[in-house]
Amino acid sequence: MNMIRATGLIPMRKKWKGTQLSAPVSSYKIQFNDIIIFIVEKKMGMSRRTFLMDLARRKGFRVENELSDSVTHIVTENNSCAEILKWLQAQKVEDSARFRILDVSWLTACLEAGRPVDSEKYRLVMDTSVLGTDSVSQYACQRRTTLNNYNKKFTDAFEVLAENYEFREDEGHCLAFRRAASVLKFLPFAVVRVSDVEGLPWMGEQVKAIIEDIIEDGESPRVNAVLNSENYRSIKLFTSVFGVGLKTSEKWYRMGFRTLEEVKCDKNLKLTRMQRAGFLHYEDLVSCVSKAEADAASLIVKESVQRFSPSALVTLTGGFRRGKKAGHDVDFLITVPGSSQEDELLHLVIDFWKKQGLVLYYDLIESTFEKKKLPSKKVDGLDNFQKCFIILKLPKGKVDFGNSVISVASAEGGKKDWKAIRVDLVVSPFEQYAFALLGWSGSRQFERDLRRYATHEKKMMLDNHALYDKTKKIFLKAASEEEIFAHLGLDYIEPWERNA
Ligand code: DCT
Ligand code: MG
């Protein structure tokens, strides 16, 4: 981070030599070591900043020229809390919650007193009006949520609780914590006190109590209790195996299993083909797919698909389309412009890969789409597209593939020169492509809320195939995601803003 350039200041060293606007930091004795101050130039101006820095140093305060990692107190004049947080964001500061952001009147009070005064009443307050709208929408599809999460410590906690409720099949509580996490992911600032979330949707009493615990103690007893519970830990472990769902995990838990070793050693257990593959490639599959690996997989998928259908479009969807740097799998959507049915393509690609020894596991599901059917009411169910769930043997190092050379993290000497990664291929008819793309780009919470919004606000039904207007009793056609948002009366949200 180069603060000097960022704030537009002349580098201090030059200044000391020339105009002597400020004395070197070391020439005054620091009396108050616990507080390390940085004064923001924005809106205050350079000369007033220099004057205040100098004065504070004379009085024994430690004032930094740059916004270093050691700074504890940020002093600002005429800026709102939101402006400062935005400015911190521009300085690539990730954890803005570690600073006290204070009005300049705190510093002048300190200078007057000749010692640090209590800063609480000088803290800049965040209120949601700075979000640019009067209120934050209850729907994730009306919130632009990037991967910049200022509230990870809260959202991680909520996700543990949501997951635990999911394991216990308590949908209501699960959704409540998922929605709360989603709202906090959207906030362009770090929550530092409970009042910061006042007026935001989905902030119920339980949610606020957890936020309060984390603010005060850095942790929530309720979340810790889940993390330490044998049931949660076991179900989490079992469901981390590809092919093992909630039902199987619960069964294994009831049978007394607590580790994967115990499951693997029981010769009486009948595992599915999917689960056997899951255990066989467990280590590779739990270590997430990196962006580089996803790019390498993209090349392989594109080359292979276009080998059999040169005009086919292959689009990276899922988390990687939203800009994620890692994911549990790589999702692709395939469509052939001008063609409505391409049943053969996926089979040809899989056969080709099998011959190349690239397929460690696959399950090809034929399309079950019926033309007459309305968009489905099921929110989280799978769609009817032909699709294939694959474990791909991704080569490491530089590999020639078709006309391309792919390069993934090289194999370390003597070790296996490939990694097992999960790949999903979905084939959509061309006229449903926009709906399929929107549905497969996620996030899950974003998709849920798009459907909820369509149903409750527009009397429409949206799924991965179509949009149906129940009032006009017609299907609304769309050739792009933009057109679907327009049909729904929503502002367009870019894929990287859908990380709800
Ligand atoms: N999807 C959905 N509902 C489901 C399953 C999937 O709406 N029940 C959509 C949302 C994302 C996309 O399909 C791909 O699913 P995942 O791969 O599970 O999600 P992801 O966002 O790609 O997450 P990850 O990075 O972990 O793969
Ligand atoms: Mg994915």
Uncertain runs? 1-23
Compute the number of helices: 20
Report the count of strand segments.
Answer: 16
CATH architecture of the largest domain: 2-Layer Sandwich
Please report which band the strand proportion falls in: under 5%, 5-15%, 15-25%, 25-35%, 35-45% or over 45%.
15-25%
**How many structural units, i.e. domains?**
5
Structural class: alpha/beta
The ligands bound in this entry are: 2',3'-dideoxycytidine 5'-triphosphate, magnesium ion
At the fold tier of CATH, the topology name of the largest domain is Beta Polymerase, domain 2
State the major sheet.
5 strands, mixed
Shape, per Cα inertia axes: globular
Helix content: 40-55%
Mean pLDDT: 90
Explain what the structure shows.
It is built from 20 helices and 16 strands. With about 500 residues, it is of the alpha/beta class. It folds into five domains: about 25-120, BRCT domain (Rossmann fold); about 130-225, DNA polymerase beta, N-terminal domain-like (DNA polymerase, domain 1, Orthogonal Bundle); about 230-280, DNA polymerase, domain 1 (Orthogonal Bundle); about 290-430, 2-Layer Sandwich (Beta Polymerase, domain 2); about 445-495, Beta Polymerase, domain 3. Helix 6 (about 150-165) crosses helix 9, helix 10 (about 230-240) crosses helix 11 and helix 15 crosses helix 17 (about 345-355). The protein is globular, with a radius of gyration of 28 Å. Residues about 1-25 have low confidence and may be disordered. Bound molecules: 2',3'-dideoxycytidine 5'-triphosphate and magnesium ion (MG). 2',3'-dideoxycytidine 5'-triphosphate binds near residues 319 and 380. It is found in: Nucleus. It holds the Pfam family HHH_8. InterPro entries: BRCT_dom (IPR001357), BRCT_dom_sf (IPR036420), DNA-dir_DNA_pol_X (IPR002054), DNA_pol-X_BS (IPR019843), DNA_pol_lambd_fingers_domain (IPR018944), DNA_pol_lamdba_lyase_dom_sf (IPR027421), DNA_Pol_thumb_sf (IPR037160), DNA_pol_X (IPR022312).
